[in-house]
Amino acid sequence: MIIRVGNIPVDGLDFHLTLAEDRLSERANAPWTTLAGEQGKAVPTVAGQQFSFPIGAEAHLKIYAEGTTVVLKGRINFELSTSCSRCLKDINRLYSIPIDMVYKPHRADGSRRGDVECDDVALSYYEGDSVDTSQTVEEIVMLSVPFTLTCEDVGLPECELSLSGDPDEVDSSSDGRFPFRILQQMKIH
Ligand SMILES: [Zn+2]
User: Fold this and answer.
1) How many angstroms separate the most distant Cα atoms in the chain?
2) In the chain, N or C terminus with fewer CB closer than 10 Å?
3) Cα(173) to centroid of ligand 1, in Å?
4) What is the pLDDT along the chain (189 residues), one digit of tens a residue?
5) pTM for the whole thing?
6) CA 165–ligand 1 middle distance (angstroms)
7) How many angstroms is it from 176 CA to the middle of ligand 1?
């Protein structure tokens, strides 16, 4: 949903946002790209674990303006469904992620006004007179999708079997529970 800054009521605006499952799945399952080769060109590599979003993503948000600064707060809920990366059992995990985003105007001359360090809130910029809240929500959902998800990650007992006959070949790439730094900054209640 694109919201014009000039149209935001003084008391702010409460709204709901739903992102379609298809779009999210398409992005989450796109082949990973890596920088490789002499030119440093991004080349697609093999696809990773396949994820789906049975309920899409639902966001309950409030937006308000303080001068030219726009604040977006609320919560994003979604469910990830996949097969355990070790034993292929069907698993899913619910996510409820708080959002606390501050947008500053991105001026035509390229300079950014009010550039400040914020530890607790994410800072973004908007072009012209509008903020694309759907894009913000989509990016946060994508950043929350882990590299891999296993039975243990969703609170189930250890995988009963490994598809690989050789224990040495068991995938250990999920040892770092939160591969994305941004996840450690998010407070999941
Ligand atoms: Zn498993």
Assistant:
1) 63
2) C
3) 14
4) 999 999 999 999 999 999 999 999 999 888 766 655 555 566 655 667 899 999 999 999 999 999 999 999 999 999 999 999 999 999 999 999 999 999 999 866 655 555 454 555 689 999 999 999 999 999 999 999 998 999 999 999 888 765 555 554 444 444 444 455 444 445 554
5) 0.73
6) 15
7) 17
